[in-house]
Structure formats: C-alpha cells, structure tokens
Amino acid sequence: MAIEIFSRKEQKYLITQRQYEQLVEQLEPRMRSDKNGTNGRYTVTSLYFDNDKKDIYFETKNKLKYRQKLRLRVYDDATEESVAFFEVKQKHKKVVNKRRLLMPLSEAYRYLEDGENANLPSYQTSNHQVLKEIDHFKRFYNLKPAMVVSYDRHALHGVNDAELRVTFDFNLRCRSEDLKLENGPYGENFIDPDLVILEVKVDHSVPLWLARILQNLQCEQRSASKFCTSTELLSGEIAAISAWKETTTIGGIENGFDQQPVYA
Asked: Are 45 and 234 in contact (CB under 8 A)?
C-alpha cells in the first residue's frame, strides 16, 4: 500500500536535457530506477483545484510560509475504475507534508459531484480521516477543479538509502477545458521541451556526494512551480514560460532570498 501520510524536504532544479543525461550517468553507481513504472518511467496526470479568486495560486506564488494545494492524481493510462490518489500537499518552512488517500477514480468523481451533499462515510477509500481533511480544505476555500497538469517522469532512488529519491519531469503540459483524467496526458506545453524539472527528495539534507555532482554539472536550484506556471499560461498572463532562480550553497540550502525571473 502507498504511504498515505509523510513528510520530507524537496529541492527543485530546472536543467537541460544534456544535464539530465550527464546526471543519470553519474548517479548510476549510487541510485537505481524506481520500482514504479517501467525502468522507473511513468506518466503523471493531476487535476488541481482552486477557487474563483485564485487563492491557492496566490498563496503559492507569494511563497507564504505555510501553503497547501489539493490535487487528484493518476498514473499512466487510466480509466474511471483505476486507482486515483487524492492528496493535500502542504509546505511549511521548506518541509513538504502530504496527506493522501487512495480511491477509485469514479468514487472521486462521485464525491466531487455530490458537493455539499457529500456523505463521507459512503465513499470507498483507503483513509476516511484524510478524506475528512480534504473535504474540510475544499469547503473552507470553496475549491473546484481548475486544470489538468501532466508530464512524463523518470524516478530514481538510492541504492543504500531508499528514502533518497530523484525525479526528472519532461514534456510538461496543462489544459483547462477537458478536466477528465481518464482522457489522458495532453495539453499545452508550459516548459520549453529542452528543459527538465529535477527534484531531489530527502528526509533531512542532500548527501554531500550528490551536492557535489549537482555543483559540478552547474545545476542551479530553482523554484519551478508547475501549478503557478500552468495557471499563468492558461489565463494568458504570461507570453513566455518563466521560472524563478534561487541561489544555493553546495549542500543545497538557500543562502539568499533574492529572486529573478528566468525565461525559457
């Protein structure tokens, strides 16, 4: 069974395809393909939620110390009978907390369609307590389905440290017209196809050997919010795809708070 409640630190980088190829080659002695997908490769398709005032977008964009998102996610090709992951992703002082449940996609749709009349105990789910938290969050913010974000992922984990994960996301797309997850991962590209979003996920800090590899390949830490960039593109607020550059030390810990736009 998938972990339903967990906490970790995540660091994001925006790298080129060439840097990705070099990284995979240098990580091979210490990391191996994730058990999910084929050789650690799979497709992620997520339905994100927001309200008419875009409160979730602005909390994320303004980098509030405590912020959270709601999303419904499936992997690879899905039908309404496929298992979906419904989760609240919270971020506080660079620590990411996720509270997640599993339920058939059709049940998730039934819950959303029921709205104010939702009878929580009646839904088939792996964790009714998390469903109560999701329901409270959705009602408090008056959240509704806003857009679908999808991408292809290559995931690795440590040979000696299974908690160390590295993921590479390619071909990032978004759409706001068709919000059915079972209709597949398609949409408008919101990141240059030559760019890859790299995420390093750890319990405490990035291992020194990994930090040195990232430094030697000139991988600069950047906050690349899939949710914010997709929202801006779909609403016509940006003409170019943007990310945000952050300075880092060799250990991957921020040494400054100044940010500047970087256009892809």
From this structure: no
Contact 218, 212 (CB under 8 A): no
**Beta bridge partners of residue 171, listed in sequence order:** none
Round to whole Å and give the CA distance between 86 and 99: 9
11 pairs with which residues across the strands? 200
**Alpha carbons 177 and 234: distance in angstroms, whole number:** 10
User: What is the number of structural domains in the chain?
Assistant: 1
| CATH assignment of the domain containing 86 | 3.20.100.30
* Residue with tokens 């990035």, as numbered in its chain: 206
pLDDT of residue 225: 86
Partners of 149 in the beta sheet? Answer: 46, 174
- pTM for the model: 0.87
The parent domain of residue 65 ranges over 5-263
- Write out pLDDT tens, residues 124-143: 999 999 999 999 999 999 99
Q: Under 8 Å CB-to-CB from 110, ≥6 apart: which residues?
A: 123
- State how far Cα 85 lies from the chain centre: 12
